[in-house]
Amino acid sequence: MAEVGESSGAKSPQEIWAKLVPSDSRHSDVEIKSDEIVICSVIRLSSFDEHAWCTIKRNSDLCSATLQNKSSTAILADEAVIHNGDTIDIRCGSEIIPGPDREGYLRYRFKVMPRPETSQKQLKICIDVDHAKCSICLSVWHDVVTVAPCFHNFCNGCFSEWLRRSQEKRSSVLCPQCRAVVQFAGRNHFLHYIGEDILKADSSLKRSDEEVATLDSCASIQSNLVIKSGKKLGRKRSYSPLHEDDHSVELPCPQCGTESGGFRCDHNTIHLQCHACGGMMPSRPPATTVPQHCLGCDRAFCGAYWHAHRVTGTGSHAMCRVETFQPISERTISRIPFWAHEKNRHEQDITEKCIRQMGRTLQDVITEWITKFNNREIDRTRMPLNHAERITSGTHLCNDCYEKLVSFLLYWYRISMPKNLLPPDALAREDCWYGYACRTQHHNEEHARKRNHVCRPTRGSNF
Ligand SMILES: [Zn+2]
Ligand SMILES: [Zn+2]
Ligand SMILES: [Zn+2]
Ligand SMILES: [Zn+2]
Ligand SMILES: [Zn+2]
Ligand SMILES: [Zn+2]
């Protein structure tokens, strides 16, 4: 019977981060200390000969490892056969057998040790809960927004309601806490996590589900709002003699000075900043105008808005072309997006080949799958976009979100394609146990090429 032991030549003493635990308790655990280790098999019956059996290399996530077979016989890892030189991702609980058959060999479980406090990257800080409360509702912030220049924080819902009332009164927006004129408001993601951690630590501070739902229904701040008025900005700018006779530059957006499409900004108009071009547009109520936010990422984009108001670039304002923010059905695509198949280039090539073999174009395939998507024939659980359930072919998406949607559809195209339509070399490959969630495919070219990764995981945390 062959048993394995840690390689000699271990480096300086380190914490044991993982172990190979044998199924038979008469044998001892193999402790793994260094980030990369050669495990040797010790043939007890002969003369304590050591043979390299495999290497185990800790992955950057610190909770999985890459195992490479260094022996002449196969290794079974999670029931996959690993030949000499092949690698596989293993994680806590993976079963490793010094194959080729399961009989007559010790089975090992790969076990990742819990990390000691010191190696955790989390920093513990003390916070007075009162400093994490909204001064409008007096509870811990929910979906916190920060206003500038005073940097006070409120719940999105609470501040949105305040904003709406100020707009109704057509007065400038004052900070509810200190009465400073608010020039900017935006979601604060860092404080959002702090708020969540506080609620996790003390659940008695949590609000009821109904309260949260009411707050969410009032929340209107999706992306950064620029509340600074045109007039003020103008006055400030005119201090510079360079801009004295160039009045158009002083106004945040094209609708500030001139009426177009039946609307003109006044000095209390709140502006949104386009994520693509950095230009400004007035924030308009969603029901009365074309979309100003991408439903996939909640960021603001100006392309559709200016197109609908027939405002074209004048040179004095940054402005997007209509193509950058269009309904899904009006978009076209000519190359496989970078995100497709978890950025696995081999799988992207296979998809490209499949499409070509069938005498079709990427656009044909996507048009067909958008129809299926629109008819709700596709499960949207894994769709990497916000508000996935609300998206239809008429939804405006930004370029990034559209490419993510196309990538999502290409996964479905591939997974539902009869195997015999795959190119022969792709057909011969076995599915990777970790499927699309496999991390090895990102750092191991050979593995990425040898195994199919357009499949569901049958192992691992996403299983
Ligand atoms: Zn509040
Ligand atoms: Zn304030
Ligand atoms: Zn304006
Ligand atoms: Zn988007
Ligand atoms: Zn823009
Ligand atoms: Zn894999």
Automatic annotation (TrEMBL):
One Pfam family recorded for the sequence: zf-RING_2
Q: Which GO terms describe its cellular component?
A: nucleus
Asked if the record carries the keyword Zinc-finger, the reply is yes
Keyword Translocase tagged:
no
Q: One GO MF term, please?
A: ubiquitin-protein transferase activity
Keywords linked to the UniProt accession = Cell cycle, Metal-binding, Nucleus, Transferase, Ubl conjugation pathway, Zinc, Zinc-finger
Localization (cell):
Nucleus
| Record domain RING-type: where | 134-179
Listed GO biological process terms:
protein ubiquitination; ubiquitin-dependent protein catabolic process
Superkingdom classification of source: Eukaryota
Which PANTHER family does the record associate with it? E3 UBIQUITIN-PROTEIN LIGASE CHFR, UBIQUITIN LIGASE PROTEIN CHFR
Official protein name in the record: E3 ubiquitin-protein ligase CHFR
Q: What organism does the UniProt record list as the source?
A: Morus notabilis
Taxon lineage? Eukaryota, Viridiplantae, Streptophyta, Embryophyta, Tracheophyta
